[in-house]
Write a structure and sequence with these properties.
It is built from seven helices and no strands. The chain has about 160 residues and is mainly alpha-helical. Helix 1 crosses helix 7. The radius of gyration is 20 Å and the shape is globular. Keywords: Membrane, Signal, Transmembrane, Transmembrane helix.
């Protein structure tokens, strides 16, 4: 049972692991973005001393239930503000950030800062990526090290999911 679930999670994780953290960091308020990890840790800690098989079953059931809930609610997730700005839909991005960061205040300093930061980073990417090549990933020793770390960590994540 665990082998099959790890296999399924391994394939699904390849897709979710790329986009989910980025969207969470864009939409969650800075003081609560790590709440999920805290809840998971306390759940595991809370079931640790149970003297039955439920000590491992409860976290496993919650791990299975959470993606099911996410699947049902995915239509309610707003578009990424960064994606909206990159498509010249700044007003929609601002509206999303006002909802999640500004508490309804369109003149919120945090919302203004976030929009400006996203616009600047997209401008920089558009003006520097035109010259970037894949060979740049291995051109210098520092870049080779970074590329190696990224590839090894991604490979290890996939390897763990397929045990």
């Amino acid at each position: 049972m665990f082998f099959i679930s790890r296999l399924i999670l391994g394939f699904a994780t390849a897709f979710a692991v790329q986009a989910a953290p980025i969207l969470i960091s864009e939409l969650s308020y800075p003081t609560v973005e790590h709440l999920g990890a805290v809840i998971a840790a306390w759940t595991t800690y809370g079931t640790f001393r149970l003297n039955s098989t439920w000590s491992w079953r409860i976290p496993s059931v919650l791990q299975a239930a959470t993606p099911q809930l996410q699947l049902c609610l995915v239509r309610l997730v707003p578009e990424s503000p960064r994606w909206l700005v990159s498509k010249c839909r700044v007003a929609e991005a601002r509206k999303t950030l006002v909802k999640y960061y500004g508490d309804g205040d369109e003149l919120s300093a945090l919302v203004t800062f976030e929009i400006k930061e996203v616009e600047e980073s997209i401008w920089i990417e558009r003006h520097t990526n035109s010259e970037a090549l894949y060979v740049d990933l291995v051109r210098t020793p520092a870049n080779r090290k970074r590329t190696f770390i990224a590839l090894v960590s991604a490979g290890l994540k996939r390897g763990v999911a397929l045990q």
